[in-house]
Structures are given as structure tokens and as C-alpha cells.
Design brief:
The chain has 322 residues and is α+β, with helices and mostly antiparallel strands. It is built from ten helices and ten strands. The longest helix has 25 residues.
């Protein structure tokens, strides 16, 4: 068995995938419709839309007539090979292919003999996963079959792009206001069910307009991207963060008290200070932050929490700018 290689753009690819917040999400008709179409059009046992995470392939949608787990190891995945190319990846008979003949997905369930996968790419060209069809019998894949799978794959890419536009900030590739609100609502429900405390942090950049005025808007964009990347570095993957608009960012942390929230804020301060010293761009990224920590009650709304954090943030900003 040959394990799939790692793409050269793996870091950027994973950042884009995780920014979409689509991994481990609930089934969606927009994707289920496409896997059903592919299964019916090609007359195969299985059609899936897979997403390739760091060490696993996870199935966003499955159309099949047998049990299949929600994920498998990336090491044994056919889709891990498919994302390495720009065209449909085809294995007409896995038992005759040295890369796959002893693969556990071939020798065991679901006994793959035929595979064809279209690499799903969005915007920057990184392949996030595949729309693929699988059968337990070998088969020829003709040029018209290739084109049909490509057409369905492009439809899947369009659905992912629509999801991205709706919830992702184009510049920083973190959640936008809508995406943050949707994810925060889910996190608040979890905290409410499990009686967990939550911290809401609101960040606002100070002296941001002078960066645009003196160094140009491209440099202002760079500062926003750096700030978003610092959020990625310091906060946990389970935390929700987003750019609410302009130079305003928000973070929701679950299962954390006020004392630990302050510690994280200090780590973030160190991260930004280190960047300022090392980058020496002719300006420093400066910001104010306010937060509240509370248990989640039935009446609590994310907008109310943001408003409370906003008041504390502006109180800090007033002190800094005096």
C-alpha cells in the first residue's frame, strides 16, 4: 500500500478548510443532493463528499447502501491521493494497482475495486477534499464519465464557495459577523446544557486609520491579517473567533473562568508584542480588549454579551487614549 503524499500547500489548505468550520458539521441537503445524484448517475455502490483533515478523511455527505464510518485514516484514503492532482483521479481496478491492492479499504469493507474522485478546490486552488464515486466491481471510466463527474464536482465547489461567502471574512479567512454569530449560538447552547461558563472578548484596533493613511490600505490589510493569525495561534481550536467588521474582532471561549481568560489575554499581548518587535514595519499593531465571563442562562443572547464586552473594551480604549 502506498500512503498519499502531503500537498506542498498543506498549511494553507488546512487553514482554509478549518476556517470554513465545515468539519464535523451536520449533514446538509445542498451536499447530500449531489452525492445522491452521483450515485444514481453512475450506478455505483457509494458516493461521498470527503474532506481531508490533518490525519483523517471525514465524510460531509454519504450516499450508500451499506454502513460506512463518518471518517477513516488519511493514510489509507483514496481521496488523499486525489487531492494531489488537478483532474479526476481514477482507479479502475484497485486489485491491479500496486498503490491500493493491499489497502484495508480494498481487502476489507467496503471492498473498493473502482474509485474516481474530483478534487474540490475553492478560490486559492487548495484542494479541500473530493466528490468521489466507489464501487465493489472494476469498471472502465470513459471521457464522458470524466466530464460528468467534473460537472458534479464543480457544483460541489460552488456550494462550498457559497458557504464560504456567507460565513467567512474574505481578507482574514476567519469567520465574519454572520459566521461568528452562528457558531457562537451553537457554543452558547452547549454551555447552557452542560452548565459551563463562557467568556466573550471584544478586540478593537487602536490607531488603525493612521496605518492606512501613512502606509496605504495594503499595509492596513496586512495588519488585520496579522491580528487574525495571532488569534489562531493563541486561542484554542474549540474557541470561536471572527472579524465582526472593520478593525473589530470577537472571541468566544467555552468552559473558562475569568482568571484563565486574563491569562490568555496576556499570552495574546505577548504574541502581538513579539510580532511588532520582529516585523519593525514602522508602526505597532495596538488594540484594546474588553471581556465578560458568565454562566449561560436561558435569556442570554450573543448580541447582549457582545454589547457588554463592548462597553468594557471602550472603557479600556478611553484609558489608553487619554
Amino acid at each position: 500500500m502506498t500512503s498519499p503524499m502531503i500537498p506542498e500547500d498543506e498549511k494553507q489548505r488546512l487553514e482554509k478548510l478549518r476556517a470554513l468550520k465545515i468539519l464535523d458539521s451536520a449533514p446538509e441537503e445542498r451536499f447530500d443532493r449531489l452525492t445522491r445524484m452521483a450515485k444514481r448517475m453512475f450506478g455505483v455502490d457509494i458516493s461521498v463528499l470527503s474532506l481531508i483533515d490533518d490525519g483523517r478523511q471525514w465524510f460531509k455527505s454519504k450516499a450508500l447502501e451499506m454502513d460506512l464510518p463518518d471518517e477513516t485514516s488519511r493514510e489509507i484514503s483514496f481521496c488523499g491521493h486525489a487531492i494531489l492532482g488537478n483532474d479526476v483521479f481514477v482507479v479502475e481496478d484497485a486489485l491491479e494497482d500496486h498503490r491500493f491492492k493491499d489497502n484495508p479499504l480494498v481487502t476489507g469493507t467496503p471492498k473498493i475495486r473502482f474509485y474516481a474522485g474530483y478534487p474540490l478546490k475553492v478560490n486559492n486552488g487548495s484542494a479541500l477534499g473530493t466528490l468521489c464515486i466507489i464501487d465493489d466491481e472494476p469498471r472502465k471510466f470513459e471521457p464522458e464519465d470524466l466530464q460528468l463527474l467534473k460537472d458534479l464536482g464543480v457544483m460541489a465547489e460552488q456550494e462550498i464557495a457559497a458557504l464560504q461567502l456567507a460565513t467567512l471574512d474574505d481578507l482574514t479567512l476567519i469567520s465574519n459577523r454572520r459566521g461568528f454569530a452562528d457558531l457562537a449560538k451553537h457554543s452558547l447552547n452547549v454551555c447552557k446544557r452542560k452548565d459551563l461558563s463562557v467568556s466573550i472578548l471584544l478586540f478593537d484596533l487602536n490607531k488603525f486609520k493612521p496605518i492606512n493613511d501613512q502606509f496605504g490600505h495594503a499595509e492596513g490589510d496586512r495588519a488585520l491579517i496579522v491580528f487574525a493569525n495571532a488569534l489562531r495561534v493563541v486561542f484554542r481550536e474549540s474557541d470561536v473567533f471572527g472579524r465582526l467588521g472593520g478593525d473589530e474582532f470577537a472571541v468566544l471561549m467555552m468552559d473558562v473562568d475569568a482568571e484563565n481568560t486574563v491569562r490568555v489575554i496576556e499570552r495574546f499581548k505577548t504574541e502581538i508584542s513579539t510580532y511588532n518587535q520582529q516585523a519593525a514595519r514602522g508602526y505597532d499593531i495596538e488594540y484594546s480588549v474588553g471581556f465578560i465571563n458568565t454562566l449561560v442562562e436561558n435569556h442570554i443572547d450573543i448580541n447582549d454579551l457582545l454589547a457588554a464586552a463592548d462597553k468594557k473594551m471602550y472603557a479600556e480604549k478611553d484609558n489608553k487614549l487619554r
